[in-house]
Amino acid sequence: MAKEKKPASGAEATAARQRSIQTQVDARDKAKKAAKKSAVQAGERRQPENPLPPQHLDKPGHEHELDPRPRYLAPDYRGSGKLEGRVALVTGGDSGIGRAVAVLFAREGADVAIVYLSEHEDAEETSKAVQKEGQRCLLIPGDVKDPRFCERAVAATVEAFGGLHVLVNNAAFQLHTKSLEELSEEHLQETLQTNIAGYFHMARAALPHMQGGACIINSGSETGLFGSKELLDYSATKGAIHAFTKSLASNLLDRGIRVNAVAPGPVWTPLNPADRPAKDVAKFGQSSDMRRPAQPEEISPAYVFLAAPVCASYVNGIVLPVMGGPYG
After folding, report:
1. Which runs of consecutive H residues, i.e. helices, occur in the chain?
2. Following DSSP, what letter does each residue of 256-286 receive, concatenated?
3. Are 171 and 198 in contact (CB under 8 A)?
4. Residues 186-209: pLDDT tens digits?
5. Which of 66, 225, 270, 311 measures 20 to 30 Å from 60, CA to CA?
6. Which amino acids are annotated catalytic?
7. What is the DSSP letter of 7?
C-alpha cells in the first residue's frame, strides 16, 4: 500500500517559491544579455557613439585631426552673465575640455587667456570661438613645467585684461605603460612635472593677483578616484590633484578664494588618441556607464558652475565627478 504523501512544510514551500522566482529572474537576465545595449543619450542632442574611427595622433595631439571632431560649442547652453566682467586663465585651453570651458566662460561674459604648448592651429580656433561670443582672448604658448613661464603667463593675462579671477588648471600629459618597470624616468618626470607640478606653478603665480571671490578649478579624473592599471603615473598625478585641491581649498578659505576640481570620466579629446593604439581608440569610452565617451561640451558646464560665485559661493574643496554614472 503506497504511503500517503505528506503536505509540504512551510520551509519546503518557501524554497520552491524561491526557486520559481529565481527561474523568472534567470530568464530575464538571459534575455537582457542577448539584447545588445546601446549607448545612453541623455542630453538635448545626440552625441557620437562607439565604434569611433580607429585613429592615432602624434603628441601633443591636435584636435583638428580628430574624426569626429570633438563637440565644444554647447549650442543649447544659454549664457546669463554669470562671469560678466571677470578674467579667466585656462591651461590646455587650445582643445578638449579646456577649449569647451573657454567658450562657455566667454558666453558667460569672461575674457579668457589660453595657455597651450604648441598646438597653434587649435589655439587659433579656440580664440575665434571666444571672440565670437563677444569676449577677448589672449593666446600664450609655453610649458607649464617651467615656473618662470607660468609667472610670465599670469603677468601677460593681468596686463592684457586688468586682473585675474578664475584659474583653470587643465594642461596634462598622458601616455600608457604596460608595467612599472617599463615606465622610464623621462616618461615619469614628464607626467609628474606637467600634471601636478604645473598646477602648483600656475596657482602660485596666480595667487598674488587674486582677491576674495576668485577661484581655482583643477581638472582631475576618474583615474584619480579608481586608478588605471596602464596609467600608473597619470592616475597618481590625478589623485595628487584631488588632494592638492582639498588642501589648497583649506589654505585659501580665509582669503575668500575657493578651490575645487572636476573629475571627468572618458572624454573625446586629443589626449587618448595621442596615447592609445588606433584599434583601442575605436572602443574608447565603451566601458563607461553610458557606454560612450562624453563630448567636451557635456563637461564644461560643471566648470561654469564652480567658477560662478552666483552658483557656487558656498562650494569649496570638492572633487565633482562628471563621469556618466554614479561615483562610488
Report:
1. 10-34, 96-107, 120-132, 147-161, 185-192, 198-206, 223-226, 232-252, 278-281, 296-307, 309-312
2. T-EEEEEEE-SB-STTTTTTS-HHHHTTTTT
3. yes
4. 999 999 999 999 999 999 999 999
5. 225
6. 234
7. P
